[in-house]
């Protein structure tokens, strides 16, 4: 055989090299076309959605806000607290609220070009609003809570610039609510101390810390998403092998997040959560549609931002949304998947997750929109690539398990606790009688009763089950 027939002349070699290079460049371009790095969306490579440094305190022009927040835990108790300590503090609390009402409306112009200061202003004002509203003595019948102009106007202004809801959010309580223990060491969950707490309890610290740990853990997931979106060519064996390996790593990350959620129980007592912490988180719609909401004085009631006045929720965690989008979980029931949604699933609030995006920084919401529009669905890739099907399904199954565990946590902390008596009753005997009455009422519960609501004001059992079932429906069938 004449082997010279297989040898290429220099011009043929040049041609082959050029074609290979062109092919590589074209596929890289295709992959990177429209690709935007995560840093464009205020996502830090090491801390993700958590800012890489603590938020700075506001400049002296805004000292009255910072001072009011420092003072609040010492003088304010929940409005329905009838304990001796609360009674003793009631005139100091009223004086604090008087001062808030009489404060001028500060101009936020000086903060406008400084995102971290705007975030700090949002945090301070949003915490002040919760302190103000929930320390007001209850009225019978309930009347709308009026948020004074001095808080409402700048909070709405700051929120418009940041693109976030004008109320306390997941960011204000979790991702921004920390100071470093040792400023010379990098950001990590062990180096973060809580900046603000409503109850001052260790339980509240633990509650925030677990969720901050989830957010920090999420940076690994963000790296997997970024790598996936940057792979130039998904047709070759090496790329598919990398995607399979990353899906396996993703499954482990989801399992670790599940462990973190489970760890809530070791440091946060459900009774303390439900009665001492949660009432501070309630938003304008916490009582459901039949209860009066809040009025932001000095703000046009048609301002679009005022549609978003629910309390903070894990549903506002950008990490969890990114995970859902990456795995293509269809919360809105827009795709034909099996098994078909149950009647209960159909009744749930399908707009919840979309609405929760408005409680995130505008830039983080933009990242989710960007992910949603990505033409590279990993689910579709796995559907057409037998080697990816199992790793993809394992990740979905881990997320389904996470949601099942989360439902148990929500049941323990909210549903079960809603059947216990309010410990803030006037006297121990009344509290005991109230507890007995609550038990009897639970036993003989009338057929039609108010649904148990999440801080987002929705029927939580329906919502959480629908989320779990939507996750399950992403599973690829053979
Ligand atoms: C004591 C601990 C917790 C309780 C009582 C709890 C309770 C709830 C409730 C009642 C909801 C319904 C929606 C609403 O807020 O109105 C919800 C939603 C949600 N929570 Fe939690 N949660 C807890 C911890 C966590 C943690 C640690 C995470 C992790 C980030 C998390 C993530 C979510 C997500 C992503 C949703 C949206 C619904 C879904 O994706 O299934 N939660 N939670």
Taking the sheet with the most strands, its summary is: 2 strands, parallel
What is the level 1 CATH name?
A: Mainly Alpha
Low-confidence stretches: 1-8, 19-30
Q: What would the average pLDDT be, to the nearest integer?
A: 90
Unique bound compounds: protoporphyrin IX containing FE
Q: H/E series, N to C? A: HHHHEHHEEHHHHEHHHHHHHH
Whole-Å distance between the termini?
Answer: 48 Å
Which structural class do you get from the secondary structure elements? mainly alpha
| Count of domains | 1
Stated plainly, the CATH topology is called Methane Monooxygenase Hydroxylase, Chain G, domain 1
Q: Which outline best applies? A: globular
How is the largest sheet built, in terms of strand order?
1-4
What's the total number of strands?
A: 4
Count of separate DSSP helical elements: 18
Pfam family, one: IDO
GO cellular component, one term: cytoplasm
Protein name: Indoleamine 2,3-dioxygenase
Organism: Gymnopus androsaceus JB14
Verbal overview:
With 478 residues, the protein is mostly helical. The chain has a single domain (60-293, 305-472), classed as Methane Monooxygenase Hydroxylase, Chain G, domain 1 (Up-down Bundle). Helices cover 55% and strands 3% of the residues. The chain contains 18 helices and 4 strands. It has helices at residues 10-32, 63-75, 84-102, 115-135, 149-162, 170-175, 202-230, 237-262, 264-267, 270-281, 318-327, 343-347, 352-356, 362-373, 378-384, 386-415, 428-443, 460-472, and strands at 145-147, 178-180, 192-194, 294-296. The strands form 2 sheets. A two-stranded parallel sheet has the order 1-4. The radius of gyration is 26 Å and the shape is globular. One of its GO terms (biological process) is L-tryptophan catabolic process to kynurenine. InterPro entries: Indolamine_dOase, Trp/Indoleamine_2_3_dOase-like. GO terms for molecular function: heme binding; indoleamine 2,3-dioxygenase activity; metal ion binding. Heme b binds at residue 406. Keywords: Heme, Iron, Metal-binding.
